[in-house]
């Protein structure tokens, strides 16, 4: 099933509860919460209190993207705050296998993200352990960037692997996703689209309708 995962980094934080409830009612299946530490990426964003607040607003999937160094330190806190999916970066984990096991032990779904310059082959040993792979289609840290075209081939490669593997996994795309390229990303094999600026800037209701129509 194709799903919309609104990136709350771009939401109006003075109206966060209102916007989450609207998107929940409209048909968003996931809510994407970025946690940034100012070290792994050059920005600082939400922490676990925001994850907990989002959890209290919706029964949909809370999709937490950990853009932090050594994310294993925070897996328990992330799960306790209410995360359903915990995504850690390949580039940030010294012992990725152990971190994935840690995520599963706390009862969350395990996901790995790769930056634009990281090849899919880097994940070859752990793809049988993941529930989702997140393909960063921009360099992480800031919203509003343009999608990097060569990342689309990585989506196609992951789709081929998932289709032929004993362990199929979701493919999520994050970065520069808009109504003009969403169809291309779905055709390449993605089934979960994270979108921030293209959703929250302008008319939220109109933008949501357009995205959900593309995802049908």
Task: Write up what this structure looks like.
α6 links the parallel β7 and β8. Strands 1-8-7-6-5-4-3-2 form an eight-stranded parallel beta sheet. The mean pLDDT is 96. It is of the alpha/beta class and 216 residues long. The chain is built from eight helices and eight strands. The relative contact order is 0.16.
Task: Tag the structure with descriptive keywords.
single chain; 216 residues; 35% helix; alpha/beta
Strand content of the residues, in percent? 15-25%
Query: Quick one: overall form?
Result: globular
User: What order do the SSEs take from the amino end to the carboxyl end, as H and E?
Assistant: EHEHEHEHEEHEHEHH
For the biggest sheet, the summary is: 8 strands, parallel
| Cα-atom radius of gyration | 16 Å
From the N-terminal CA to the C-terminal CA, the straight-line distance is 9 Å
Tally of DSSP β-strands: 8
Poorly predicted ranges: none
Strand arrangement, largest sheet?
1-8-7-6-5-4-3-2
Portion of residues within helices: 25-40%
What is the residue-averaged pLDDT? 96
Query: Helix count?
Result: 8
Class inferred from helices and paired strands: alpha/beta
Compact summary:
With 216 residues, the protein is an alpha/beta fold. It has helices spanning 16-26, 48-57, 75-81, 96-105, 151-164, 182-188, 197-200, 204-215, and strands at 3-6, 30-36, 61-67, 85-89, 109-114, 132-136, 170-174, 192-195. An eight-stranded parallel beta sheet has the order 1-8-7-6-5-4-3-2.
């Amino acid at each position: 099933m194709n799903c919309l995962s609104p990136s709350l980094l771009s939401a109006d934080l003075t109206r966060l509860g209102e916007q989450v409830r609207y998107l929940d009612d409209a048909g968003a299946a996931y809510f994407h919460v970025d946690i940034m530490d100012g070290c792994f990426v050059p920005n600082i964003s939400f922490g676990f209190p925001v994850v907990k607040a989002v959890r209290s607003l919706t029964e949909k999937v809370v999709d937490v993207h950990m853009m932090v160094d050594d994310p294993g330190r925070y897996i328990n806190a992330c799960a306790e705050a209410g995360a359903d999916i915990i995504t850690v970066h390949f580039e940030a984990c010294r012992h990725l296998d152990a971190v994935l096991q840690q995520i599963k032990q706390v009862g969350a779904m395990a996901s790995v993200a790769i930056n634009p310059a990281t090849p899919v082959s880097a994940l070859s040993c752990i793809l049988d352990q993941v529930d989702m792979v997140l393909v960063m289609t921009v360099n992480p840290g800031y919203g509003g960037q343009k999608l990097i075209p060569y990342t689309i081939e990585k989506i196609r490669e992951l789709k081929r692997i998932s289709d032929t593997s004993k362990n199929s996994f979701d493919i999520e795309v994050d970065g520069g996703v808009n109504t003009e390229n969403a169809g291309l990303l779905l055709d390449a094999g993605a089934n979960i689209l994270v979108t921030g600026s293209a959703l929250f800037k302008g008319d939220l209701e109109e933008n949501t309708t357009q995205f959900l129509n593309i995802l049908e």
